[in-house]
Design a protein that fits this description.
The protein has about 525 residues and is an alpha+beta fold. The chain has a seven-stranded mixed β-sheet, with helices on both faces. The chain has a five-stranded mixed β-sheet with strand order 20-19-21-22-23, sandwiched between helices. α5 (about 100-130) runs antiparallel to α7 and α5 packs parallel to α8. The structure holds adenosine-5'-triphosphate (ATP).
């Protein structure tokens, strides 16, 4: 674990050093849980967004996009339940003055029991070697059973407290489990209070008073309140989907783990409107499609898992997360929810407008049911970055840091380098750049030794380096070097475009999805 934390620190440092992610307002000592994307980060982020957008809107003829405003009528958040219920339970430690999410403290405690069980299993596996029957051991070993029973009891008590919104009970669990503050090491806890995660601001400045508006905590509501506009103007028939990418804001109590939990972040959400009764079929379908989208990137199939929700939000009748193995454990990257007709019905009620869909086949009107897929751009970015980062020992004791980014997502696709800065090589290299730049993000680099230039490109994940040497002037060939294998091949300049295109185009990635 400590080793993983070390790696994570290195990734964070690498992201800064190579222009991927900077702390916001750094020269003013930063703003907690807010980050800026640098010259390479923005390209990687845009490529992730493009991959998602195209997978939704190009590959599904019944999905279209919108771009709704961040500010919306405040009653929308009343209707959606965010004003009353978008809360996290918070607790303070009086000694360290640190603030925690009570639910997270308890979840960490549950994870500790799991760790204890896994340690017993690992110990026994080592002792018994080949003949070890893990399933049998888990079912019969007294120490494992004892930990498992405690874990189960805690889990049940925790779920009941969360469902009942019982803040006193959450505090009591923390006390009974003897959970201590990781900073002060004491159990000197305050009461648990609800904390609303929405940012508020004021709109207008008239004498009759300004209106309180919220920065949206999710993009989905912009889709719900526009669904009938899109359906009518686009002559859409059920089932159909609306996709949107945009900023969302949450005043997270505890912001940790770099861009995993931010106060300003970006979401890619798609609401799929279906006939009542068909939602679970579509839920299963979207679960499958979304995992396929992730796996097509080739980050490693074993790094994903579904986490089906046992405790459902009151409006949902099925929900799952797609979790990704980050250096700090399996974590939610995307949520897929069957939200029933809750949101649309609420908007019908609060707005007083009829927003039913007329189904020409059934000849009846109803409020559609909704399947939502919701993924954080920044978390996706983090999963791509973490799984791509590698420190490699090369032959001869040399080291390199390389980002094995999926080629279609790489910020720079190819770098063109004259071997030396004379003899007409720079001019020849520029000619190549001037051809390739219309289709690919292409860098020109003539500074330092060729080895150093390769390392720089490896560090930002550039799939191809093209080296122009004296032979290039004679026969129009160059050296094409691959990032991952570091293999070099002599190729014709006229073949460069198609060679690169075949590997880095989004098209090839999208084709894997069908
Ligand atoms: P969590 O339990 O981690 O707070 P959530 O269940 O509240 O997440 P959703 O409301 O389902 O998250 O949001 C959908 C997606 O938006 C998440 O899967 C995640 O990728 C992203 N997301 C949510 N909150 C944040 C945040 N504070 N920073 C970055 N991304 C976020």
């Amino acid at each position: 674990m400590a080793q993983q934390e070390d790696v994570f620190k290195k990734i964070v440092a690498h992201a800064k050093e190579y222009g991927f992610v900077f702390q916001s307002s750094e020269i003013y000592d930063g703003l907690a849980a807010v980050y800026d994307y640098g010259q390479n980060g923005v390209e990687l982020k845009n490529n992730i967004k493009r991959y998602w957008w195209d997978a939704m809107t190009l590959l599904h003829e019944n999905i279209v996009g919108i771009d709704s405003a961040i500010f919306m009528h405040p009653t929308i958040w009343k209707a959606s339940g965010h004003v009353d219920a978008f809360n996290d339970p918070l607790i303070d430690n009086r000694d360290s003055k640190k603030r925690y999410r009570a639910d997270v403290l308890i979840e960490d405690q549950i994870a500790k029991y799991d760790e204890k069980i896994n340690k017993e299993v690992a110990k026994a596996a080592k002792r018994f070697g080949e003949s070890f029957d893990e399933a049998m051991f888990r079912q019969t070993n007294p120490r494992v059973l004892e930990h498992a029973a405690k874990r189960e009891a805690l889990h049940t008590r925790f779920s009941e407290a969360m469902n009942a919104n019982d803040l006193a009970e959450l505090r009591q669990i923390i006390v009974d489990e003897q959970i201590v503050c990781p900073i002060s090491g004491t159990k000197n806890w305050t009461d648990v209070r609800q904390f609303n995660l929405m940012f508020k601001t004021e709109m207008g400045s008239t004498a009759d008073g300004a209106m309180t508006v919220y920065l949206r905590p999710e993009t989905a509501q912009g889709i719900f309140v526009n669904y009938l506009n899109v359906q009518k103007t686009g002559r859409m028939r059920l089932p159909f989907g609306i996709a949107q990418i945009g900023k969302a804001f949450r005043n997270e109590i505890v912001a940790r783990q770099f861009i995993f939990r931010m106060r300003e972040f970006e979401q890619m959400e798609m609401q799929f409107f279906v006939r009542p009764g068909e939602e679970l079929k579509w839920f299963a379908q979207w679960k499958e499609w979304r995992l396929k989208w992730h796996k097509a990137l080739g980050l490693g199939d074993e790094k994903y898992r579904y986490h089906d929700h046992e405790k459902l939000a009151h409006y949902a009748n099925a929900a799952t997360d797609i979790e990704f193995q980050m250096p700090f454990g399996f974590k939610e990257v995307e949520g897929i929810h069957s939200r029933t007709n809750f949101d649309l019905s609420q908007h019908e009620k609060f707005s007083g407008k009829n927003i039913k869909y007329f189904d020409p086949e059934l000849n009846e009107s109803y409020v559609p049911y909704v399947i939502e897929t919701s993924i954080g751009v920044d978390r996706m970015f983090l999963s791509v970055l973490c799984s791509s980062y590698e420190e490699q020992e090369l032959e001869g004791g040399e080291k390199r840091v390389v980002l094995h980014l999926p080629e279609a997502l790489a910020p720079v696709k190819c770098a063109v380098m004259p071997l030396v800065r004379k003899d007409g090589l720079p001019e020849k290299a520029r000619e190549i750049v001037n051809e390739l730049k219309f289709d690919f993000a292409t860098h020109y680099d003539e500074k330092d030794s060729i080895g150093k230039r390769y390392r720089r490109q490896d560090a930002i994940g550039t799939p191809f380096c093209i080296t122009v040497d004296h032979q290039s002037l004679e026969d129009n060939t160059v050296t094409l070097r691959e990032r991952d294998s570091m293999q070099q091949a002599r190729v014709n300049i006229s073949d460069l475009h198609s060679l690169i295109h075949n590997r880095v185009s989004l098209n090839a990635l999208l084709r894997k999805l069908k």
